[in-house]
């Protein structure tokens, strides 16, 4: 099995690219979704997060409320580090399990979408890392229209992430999302042909 870690800045178009890769025949895993699972009620992750942040992060449904947790850690580097120190290793373990399951199932090409791939140090989980890039103004504009959020809140998140240049430097392939969706599809198809021919 050939495994690709797909990353990029917020609003760069990761999910859109993942959708195209799925159309081309890749199986998808979303590390963000895996991330919710690692602290569901009853897990060790749940216990560790509640021990660290207190019962106030538990919502009325008994699950950890991601919004409440986010509002505690965002803008507080020490608390953010406490959270990522708990959840990133758990997510890496769960992603590695998923990779093992897909390999056993006979999947040929697996794409794992992971926004924090570099920040979390997950490079070694994958055969290759593909990075989606988009100019910051463009990404911000797309997020404002997708999520109805303010420019300030998006810019704060942009400021907290590693710069695109660093991602590009560490990538095996770069997919530029600076144009329209047709152009994006074409770029994805071209990288797919270049990097996966003979692998599926
Ligand atoms: P997040 O960081 O929130 O996970 P993402 O990197 O996965 O975001 P997408 O959700 O794929 O980004 O794209 C953000 C928004 O921009 C979506 O509404 C998507 O439909 C739109 N979009 C992505 N690429 C393009 C494009 N080339 N032209 C127009 N709209 C686009």
How does this structure look, described?
- With 200 residues, the chain is α/β, with parallel strands linked by helices.
- The chain has a single domain, classed as P-loop containing nucleotide triphosphate hydrolases (Rossmann fold).
- Helices cover 56% and strands 13% of the residues.
- The chain is built from ten helices and five strands; from the N terminus they run βαβααααβαβαααβα.
- It has a five-stranded parallel sheet with strand order 2-3-1-4-5, with helices on both faces.
- The longest helix is centred in the middle third of the chain and has 29 residues, at 77-105.
- The radius of gyration is 17 Å and the shape is globular.
- The mean pLDDT is 95.
- It binds adenosine-5'-triphosphate.
- Adenosine-5'-triphosphate is lined by residues 8, 10-16, 115, 142, 146, 177, 180-181, 184.
- Adenosine-5'-triphosphate (ATP) is lined by residues 8, 10-16, 115, 142, 146, 177, 180-181, 184.
Question: Would you give the CATH topology?
Answer: Rossmann fold
The distinct bound ligands, ions and cofactors come out as: adenosine-5'-triphosphate
Largest sheet: 5 strands, parallel
What are the low-pLDDT stretches, counting only 5+ consecutive residues below 50?
A: none
Strand content: 5-15%
